[in-house]
Amino acid sequence: MDSSEVRAAAARAVVAVAAHGRTLEAALAAERARGAAGPAVQALAFGTVRWLPELDVLLGLLTGPRSARLEPEVRAVALVGLFQLVHARTPAHAAVAETVEAVRRIGRPRAAGLVNAVLRRFLRESDALLAEARRDPEARFAHPAWLMRRLADDWPGFDAAILEAGNAPPPMWLRVNVARIEPAACRDKLAAAGLAAGGCDFAPSALKLESPLDVAALPGFAEGELSVQDAAAQLAAPLLAAAPGLRVLDACAAPGGKACHVLEATPGLAALVAVEIDPVRAGRIRDNLSRLGLEAEVVVGDAARPADWWDGRPFDRILLDVPCSGTGVIRRHPDIKLLRRESDLAGFAATQRGLLEAVWPLLAPGGRLVYSTCSVLRAENEAVVAGFLAACPAAADATESARLSVDGQLPAGGPGPGLSLPTGFADTDGFYYACLEKRA
Predict the structure, then answer these.
(1) Mean pLDDT of 116-134
(2) How many angstroms separate the first and last alpha carbons of the chain?
(3) Which of 14, 68, 72, 85 is most buried (most C-beta within 10 Å)?
(4) Ramachandran region of residue 426, left (φ > 0), alpha (ψ -120 to 50) or beta?
(5) 3-state secondary structure of 271
């Protein structure tokens, strides 16, 4: 695939997200199906979507009133070209020439002159144009205004750091399967292969690669010694505090990383039941279990309707990793900036509260439920848990005592129940956990 087709494929993916509301993952899968995707396409598509709030303002300055009349495909190619010049540091001649040729590749040859003029004008006036564009907060921080406002309210004094972390390329965190290899030995094994990795003081099984790479190239991955999982997500298992002989439920389990971590860290469980509503995603749980040499009961079912799958035996531990806005993982999924709306939050909160209420009766007296999200917004985190605690006298917030069992330094607790980790803390994703115990 030549350079112009790489840019055309990236532009098609951007159109699928920005104009048609598809996820970037789905858009790139469509490009792979047509034989037009690879690392270069992914890098251009991810980068353009990541910086689109800024690039769109720049394009408006460069095209004036014509901006609103640009066809989505032409707009996307121009945005890909601007991304190369502003953030990818692509040589100017290649960025311009190959992007102009990409306009022809997408079947819009008459727009080639316009895109050429836009990119060349940017090269002539880049400093002034960038300064003017970044007077707009959405362009300066490359996030939608509603999310910036929410973060300012929920994280006063920390919101700018969260926005900055959300625009950074994500690191590659690994989880060592301690049932098969010790973290120190795994780190030595990576080093012997020329792969430098650092640790995380609050997640002893976590290793962060200095340079991400394909999992197929990781020594020990195929043998089940390693998995890819952010260090913040690795807090779920220690906070759950499972022990041999206990029954554990992972109520929204796909793709199975947290369930597998619990099994790796706690041999001798009486049972681990992993529930997932999507049959395809349930298959990913089974695949992960198989690669890691672990066993669990995988149930295709709706966690909000336990009567359809629960056998009536209570669980001593429940992990409830609920669907959410994903605002803590924007650096991994930049399309969230374009696909989420502030109005979505009420629906997420209602679903989250409904799931809590549905699975709480499955918890044995004296048992612990860990509620988690990859959101950094109080509406989905502290507000949901506080409302549940107020309505359920049998539930007690045990997060503060649970965090004492976690190694290393965690963020100080803020107002409201639970533990919030802002995106970028120790170079991890943004996460929220609340440990709720049922009074006996």
Answers:
(1) 97
(2) 64
(3) 14
(4) left
(5) strand
Sole residue written with tokens 């598509």 = 45
Check if the beta carbon of residue 274 is closer than 8 Å to that of residue 299: yes
What one-character DSSP code corresponds to residue 416? Answer: S
Which residue stretches of 134-211 are H helix? 137-141, 145-154, 159-166, 183-192
Q: Is the pLDDT of residue 236 over 70?
A: yes
CA distance readout (Å), 167 to 163, 394, 418: 7, 41, 26
pLDDT band at 413 (very low <50, low <70, confident <90, very high): low
DSSP state of 376: -
Question: What average pLDDT does range 271-295 have in this prediction?
Answer: 97
Q: Encoding tokens for residue 283?
A: 């298959």
Strands 271-276 and 363-373: unpaired
Q: How far apart are CA 344 and CA 324, in angstroms?
A: 9
* Paired tokens of 397: 């917030």
Residue 271's φ and ψ, nearest 5 degrees, are: -170, 150
CA 83 to chain CA centroid, Å, is 22
Q: How would you classify the pairing of strands 226-228 and 172-176?
A: antiparallel
For 263, counting Cβ atoms within 10 Å of its Cβ (0-12 exposed, 13-18 middle, 19+ buried), the class is buried
Residue in 186, 374, 392, 435 annotated catalytic: 374
> What domains lie within the chain, and their CATH numbers?
3-141 (1.10.940.10), 172-226 (3.30.70.1170), 232-438 (3.40.50.150)
Residues 62-82 pLDDT 10s: 999 888 889 999 999 999 999
Q: Which of 244-258, 300-314, 406-420, 421-435 has the lowest mean pLDDT?
A: 406-420
Listed in sequence order, the residues at least 6 apart from 299 whose beta carbon sits closer than 8 Å to its beta carbon are: 273, 274, 275, 276, 282, 309
The β-bridge partners of 315 are 363
Q: Which of 269, 369, 367, 288 is nearest to 322 (CA)?
A: 369
Task: For residues 417 and 351, give the distance between their C-alpha atoms in angstroms, rounded to a whole number.
Answer: 19
374 a catalytic residue: yes
- 358-401 pLDDT tens trace: 999 999 999 999 999 999 999 999 999 999 999 999 999 999 99
